[in-house]
Amino acid sequence: MSILTNEKARVWGGFAIAAILLFAVAPAVLSDFRLSLLGKFICFAIVAVGIGLAWGRGGMLTLGQGVFFGLGAYIMAMHLKIADAELRGDTVPDFMQIAGIRELPGYWVPFSSPIVAILGILFVPALVALLLGLGVFKRRVKGAYFAILSQALAAAFAILLVGQQSTGGSNGLNRFRTFFGFNLNDPANKQMLFFIAAGTLLAVVAITRQLMYSRYGELLVAVRDQEERVRFLGYDPANIKLVAYVTAAFFAGIAGALFVPIVGIISPADVGIIPSIAFLIGVAIGGRSTLLGPVLGALGVAWAQSAFSESFPSGWTYAQGLLFIVVVGFFPAGIAGLIALLKRRKKQSDDPPPEAPEPAEEVEMAR
């Protein structure tokens, strides 16, 4: 009983510390610009949590999370552009007027409603992942084939967006002025967006922890390690994988929707192959099989990219690739796994050596 109590205390203590850092310390010590930058990094961390569940626990190398991130982002962006146009008294957003589009495209119309837009953000990425997952996992596609397929999906999605004038083409959607009635130029509203992103990250981590340490989490790890044995026991591995894959897409869609008002732009460059791989690099560096490893890895890589690219714009890409190679080649469990290994070794060195057994009594020589 005491063990369970200590475990709960550690978990609640960890969430309390994270909440204090995000809701009290960060706004107090960071400027408005740095706080918005941290909000952007938190969006990446939300995506990373889902990848950690699908890849770290489920063994699914998801190279196409940019698709689900982009779906949530573009739905949010379309709603914000429509709302801005209505405030100006226009029927179409400003970029459509420049392109000569005088009528709102049919697939834009539903997202003029805030409720429909929120429902679309929550369920469209998850529905796409569900349909794709059913077609892939039921056919027992896995390993490198699954990774290539998901990456091809990200590439196709980015190419599709580039060719669509109604979504801004290669420039994407930008210059948002309001967020559900709140002025985005107001620093107080920008801070509100940061708090929403921070609260979402804590909620996503809590949900993922519940999944990881439940019976489902045990089944997911079993499918990763011994899929055929799990099938022999009467479970369908495809359904178990599907839940993790859809959950990761659900998280990515929410992250994309939060990314749009925080950063102020979404374009095909944010949803293609390169961003999808960047999500994966953060998870691998942090530790894909742990709960907090993906979060810390995503935040660390995003911060390093922002910091080093300011001084070495052309060198960061090579440094990022080198870091990924080093971690995968020498520390496959990531930084979190390396820290756990060092703790185990320290504990073993601190434990007293076992006492030598007492010598056996001498056996009588004569009988």
UniProtKB/TrEMBL annotation:
<keyword id="KW-0472">Membrane</keyword>
<feature type="transmembrane region" description="Helical">
    <location>
        <begin position="278"/>
        <end position="304"/>
    </location>
</feature>
<feature type="transmembrane region" description="Helical">
    <location>
        <begin position="61"/>
        <end position="80"/>
    </location>
</feature>
<keyword id="KW-1133">Transmembrane helix</keyword>
<dbReference type="GO" id="GO:0015658">
    <property type="term" value="F:branched-chain amino acid transmembrane transporter activity"/>
</dbReference>
<feature type="transmembrane region" description="Helical">
    <location>
        <begin position="242"/>
        <end position="266"/>
    </location>
</feature>
<feature type="transmembrane region" description="Helical">
    <location>
        <begin position="192"/>
        <end position="212"/>
    </location>
</feature>
<protein>
    <submittedName>
        <fullName>Urea transport system permease protein</fullName>
    </submittedName>
</protein>
<keyword id="KW-0812">Transmembrane</keyword>
<dbReference type="GO" id="GO:0005886">
    <property type="term" value="C:plasma membrane"/>
</dbReference>
<feature type="compositionally biased region" description="Acidic residues">
    <location>
        <begin position="358"/>
        <end position="367"/>
    </location>
</feature>
<feature type="region of interest" description="Disordered">
    <location>
        <begin position="346"/>
        <end position="367"/>
    </location>
</feature>
<feature type="transmembrane region" description="Helical">
    <location>
        <begin position="143"/>
        <end position="163"/>
    </location>
</feature>
<dbReference type="InterPro" id="IPR017778">
    <property type="entry name" value="ABC_transptr_urea_perm_UrtC"/>
</dbReference>
<dbReference type="Pfam" id="PF02653">
    <property type="entry name" value="BPD_transp_2"/>
</dbReference>
<keyword id="KW-1003">Cell membrane</keyword>
<feature type="transmembrane region" description="Helical">
    <location>
        <begin position="316"/>
        <end position="342"/>
    </location>
</feature>
<feature type="transmembrane region" description="Helical">
    <location>
        <begin position="115"/>
        <end position="137"/>
    </location>
</feature>
<feature type="transmembrane region" description="Helical">
    <location>
        <begin position="12"/>
        <end position="30"/>
    </location>
</feature>
<feature type="transmembrane region" description="Helical">
    <location>
        <begin position="37"/>
        <end position="55"/>
    </location>
</feature>
<dbReference type="InterPro" id="IPR043428">
    <property type="entry name" value="LivM-like"/>
</dbReference>
<dbReference type="InterPro" id="IPR001851">
    <property type="entry name" value="ABC_transp_permease"/>
</dbReference>
